[in-house]
Write a structure and sequence with these properties.
This protein has 152 residues and is mainly beta. It has one helix and six strands. Strands 1, 2, 3, 4, 5 and 6 form a six-stranded antiparallel beta sheet that branches. The longest helix is centred in the last third of the chain and has 5 residues. 2% of the residues are buried.
């Protein structure tokens, strides 16, 4: 098996050596894993797991990095991909079949925001809205992700 090593370094800067650029970089990493063992019941419809070929063992792992870069209060960029992998083992009677593995990659969020003023910002990219305001509810182009939200 593998091991995970995380290293964090804290560096103290003197105020005279700090760059004048107001650049703020924040990031985090979430790793979610799960496993399952299952013994399918022997029935007339699925004798010895020959018909359905249900996986006896299943392992899933998901990696979610989160990176936010801000330049002052003017520009902000968010990068949130999701990397997912899965492996399943199937036994047909007393014979083990070849392990079934799959992996996928998708962007949960990837967007750039340009704040023109305190009241106006322009955002471009893929962004998941977690709060729906009245203007978003009235828009015919926005999809609703919350079950309580109704599109007018």
């Amino acid at each position: 098996m593998g091991s995970v090593l995380l290293l964090f370094a804290l560096v103290a800067f003197d105020e005279a050596t700090v760059s004048p650029l107001p650049l703020d970089v924040r990031g985090s990493l979430a790793w979610i894993s799960a496993g399952r063992l299952l013994e399918p019941r022997a029935t007339e419809l699925n004798p010895q797991n020959a018909s359905l070929a249900l996986p006896i063992g299943l392992a899933q792992s998901e990696l979610r990095p989160n990176l936010t870069i801000e330049y002052g209060h003017v520009l902000a960029m968010a990068l949130r991909p999701r990397l997912r992998s899965q492996i399943a083992w199937v036994r047909d009677g007393s014979t083990w079949q070849r392990a079934q593995a799959e992996a996928s990659f998708e962007w949960i969020e990837l967007y750039l925001t340009w704040r023109l003023s305190e009241m106006l910002a322009v955002t471009y990219g893929r962004q998941v809205h977690k709060q729906h305001k009245s203007a978003q509810r009235a828009s015919s182009r926005k999809r609703c992700y919350q079950p309580t939200c109704r599109v007018l």
